[in-house]
Specification:
15% strand
Length: 248
């Protein structure tokens, strides 16, 4: 029985992915900043661990407690929406600390056991916003695009150890808590000069799009990356992301 460690399991993609792997007989280590017993069904195959990917001590403790892991899913992330001119650097650093450096730090912490066993899979969840430029997402997109580049370079380093590194790129998923997650970092992030642009963006989002991503799409994409050795490095998750990937 294989073991997957998934970061950011308190809601959204991470929570549904943890459920998906549990239902298919895997041992699941579901991590979140504040573990909650009520989020996932009780199972002998489930372990909940506290993890803040922006904290080195928290990462060290979680990796030690996890023990042997076959697949690492770097899913933890925070949202950010706003014009760059209205974004303070503390907020930008917070986004990169979790989305980018958190992914790098978690991967680095897991690598010794993967390298020593000469097996392992690392799956980094980024975003389809890296496939098409969109306004008001410059900082968020940059944090995810950096992970794309990190993943592709790292994959070359780890080939010699039989460790594969993959990307899952979800599309827009209104059913998740991304908007709620991003709201605290939106305060004063849209100066008056950008108000008209923002109104147009929000109006577009309010319309019912034909193509969307569901959390289950992401879970299926992560499963594909984890269980099919022939899966590509970049896997679009969701109908909208798949459409963008085909254009890309």
């Amino acid at each position: 029985m294989k073991t997957v460690l998934i970061t950011g399991c308190s809601s959204g993609f991470g929570l549904v992915t943890a459920q998906y792997f549990l239902e298919r007989g895997w041992k699941v280590i579901a991590t979140m900043r504040t573990p909650r017993e009520d989020l996932l069904p009780r199972s002998a195959h489930l372990r909940l661990l506290a993890l803040d990917v922006s904290n080195a001590d928290s990462i060290r403790a979680a990796v030690e407690a996890a023990g042997e892991v076959d697949v690492l899913v770097n899913n933890a992330g925070i949202g950010m929406l706003g014009a760059l001119e209205g974004t303070d650097m503390a907020t930008a650093r917070e986004v990169f600390e979790t989305n980018t450096l958190g992914t790098i730090a978690m991967t680095q912490a897991m690598l010794p056991q993967f390298r020593q066993r000469k097996q392992g899979i690392i799956i980094n969840v980024t975003s389809s916003v890296t496939l098409k430029a969109l306004p008001l997402l410059a900082v968020y997109t940059a944090s995810k695009a950096a992970v794309n580049a990190f993943t592709e370079s790292l994959a070359l380093e780890l080939q010699q150890f039989n460790v594969s590194v993959k990307l899952v790129l979800p599309g827009r998923a209104p059913e998740t808590r991304f908007g709620d997650n991003a709201r605290p970092r939106m305060q004063a992030s849209i100066p008056p000069a950008y108000a008209e642009l923002a109104q147009g963006v929000f109006a577009g989002w309010a319309e019912s799009p034909l193509l969307l991503t569901h959390a289950s799409d992401v879970a299926e994409a992560v499963w594909y990356a984890a269980t099919d050795a022939s899966s590509p490095m970049r896997i679009a998750a969701g109908a909208d992301a798949q459409a963008l990937m085909s254009v890309d």
